[in-house]
Amino acid sequence: MSQDLEYIPLEDAKCLATDILLAAGLSEGHAEAIAKSVVSAQRDECFSHGLWRLLGCVATVSKGKVDPKAVPAIDASAPGIVKVDAKFGFSLLAFREGLPDLIGKANRFGIAAMAINHCYHFSALWPEIEEITEAGLVALAMTPSHSWVAPAGGKKPVFGTNPIAFGWPRPASNPFVFDFATSAAARGEIELHRRAGKPIPLGWAIDSDGNDTADATKAMEGAMLTFGGHKGSALSAMIELMAGPLIADMTSAESMAFDEGAGVAPCHGEIIIALDPKVFLGSGMEQNMRRAEDMFAAITSQGARLPSQRRYEARARNESRGIPVQTSLLEELKSTLASLA
Amino acid sequence: MSQDLEYIPLEDAKCLATDILLAAGLSEGHAEAIAKSVVSAQRDECFSHGLWRLLGCVATVSKGKVDPKAVPAIDASAPGIVKVDAKFGFSLLAFREGLPDLIGKANRFGIAAMAINHCYHFSALWPEIEEITEAGLVALAMTPSHSWVAPAGGKKPVFGTNPIAFGWPRPASNPFVFDFATSAAARGEIELHRRAGKPIPLGWAIDSDGNDTADATKAMEGAMLTFGGHKGSALSAMIELMAGPLIADMTSAESMAFDEGAGVAPCHGEIIIALDPKVFLGSGMEQNMRRAEDMFAAITSQGARLPSQRRYEARARNESRGIPVQTSLLEELKSTLASLA
């Protein structure tokens, strides 16, 4: 992909994304929710979760796996839980539909969980985390993927790349947000090294015999590793359990089997926990939010970065000059739209 | 400390621990709760959280920091939250007193949180996690400590060693439990290397100029590092926020300042989240618990270990032959008891 960038207005990017998704057969709700997420990622220069993902959405629809017009069904009967059945549609509309109940329950009980089930998932978690922090809540989200990652001490894949994301609302600035895979590297990174014929760093993966490998082809045939050794592996297992069996949905291994080799966006669940600082803190709200700010200042004042700082800097840059899009990607998106029309 | 081990009956270990704690001035409730925790750790051969910690408890009491007879106060007025004010006593009695409310709220709402405030904390989190899984619940616990750990990209300490622990109940075997510090190594490990004049592995710490160091003395003067680079650092920040400002308690930096160089057990808060699979799963309980077992089997069948496997093996060994105690430690504990009597 060429790295020549064009800058297009935010609204144009949204329209292009929405038009492609509608032309691919998605309902309006799905198209809007997905367009919002991928345009936000593109704006923040998270290109791996940006407009490029529209091509994957179109492919996932064309392979007949996803229901492009699925209407999510909400079950909010358990006091502290919102269950949203995405009915084998994409995840983002289900999130949008369930969010008001999640916020309402967190406001009322202090803590609440949302389980999104039976959804095709390809998006970053941080846009969802940001939306929850906008309601003044603390948020934690997890999701499995496909079983590409070996547990510590093992050599066969069990876990997905299993991202975990967290958000903390900040009164006077962008929220504190992180969102990372519990695999040592993204699968796409290894694939890029393979295509370029370049070695991968040791620690990313093992070959099919369980030996460390710098060979990207052998890594793709073997297993990826988690970040942080046995600690990362333990976290990845937690994510499988919390965003799988706990919410009656598939583990990464089951999701991979369900895909039947189609190679589309993985189908599985997602769990989101929201906590309301107002309920936890009452009249101590202001003092404790300041306490958190003191900690952030202790990090940034020594020149270290907060997790999303690069992303927020990109956002600030691009809000005036427009959304950066790779010229070749823009052409591909336009021709995709033309071919669908 | 000599590694010669003696094996003493579980009840004898409990009595010795309780007697020492009572002699040090702790109330019966505190003595029982602490004895249970340190004897469990000793039984499981987690010696760093075992009987050895009694010496630290006695020192913390003798320095006049902790209230040895503090009576925890419970505020369960928010529907999904149990707040337990430990009133500057040790944490374990507060946990024990709040646990029935935490379980009750999780049973009712599906998810609930317990905030323990103003507690002196020295114990492993896994014994608490195990108790929650015994009630059939999934559990997640976090706590700060003292600010010894630098954020990724920084060189000055901000975070504590900040442990995170998780548990998943298993119908037919010991629960799936992990409990690890988000620092790359335990502070005690670095201290042991310093005393032995041995270099520490790179990646554990930096010197006061922010450079990687293998020198344990320079590491103690500089800062420890988190495990897993920027990902571990992000998790450590999350733990500071969730187990600090969110529950109206001190961050690791504040806790260290509060200690005023006394070097006793750190005083801060702890957050525990409990989730009830029965509420999440309803009639799908059995099927989804089996799904989790399938994942555990995929890990163990390839020769990889589950996080607490070594601990459970030690427990099984020691249940019949008795609790292993280092001879020198046993002598020290007995003479401590004699000196307090």
UniProtKB/TrEMBL annotation, chains A, B:
<dbReference type="InterPro" id="IPR043144">
    <property type="entry name" value="Mal/L-sulf/L-lact_DH-like_ah"/>
</dbReference>
<dbReference type="InterPro" id="IPR003767">
    <property type="entry name" value="Malate/L-lactate_DH-like"/>
</dbReference>
<dbReference type="Pfam" id="PF02615">
    <property type="entry name" value="Ldh_2"/>
</dbReference>
<comment type="similarity">
    <text>Belongs to the LDH2/MDH2 oxidoreductase family.</text>
</comment>
<dbReference type="InterPro" id="IPR043143">
    <property type="entry name" value="Mal/L-sulf/L-lact_DH-like_NADP"/>
</dbReference>
<keyword id="KW-0560">Oxidoreductase</keyword>
<dbReference type="GO" id="GO:0016491">
    <property type="term" value="F:oxidoreductase activity"/>
</dbReference>
<protein>
    <submittedName>
        <fullName>Oxidoreductase</fullName>
    </submittedName>
</protein>
<dbReference type="InterPro" id="IPR036111">
    <property type="entry name" value="Mal/L-sulfo/L-lacto_DH-like_sf"/>
</dbReference>
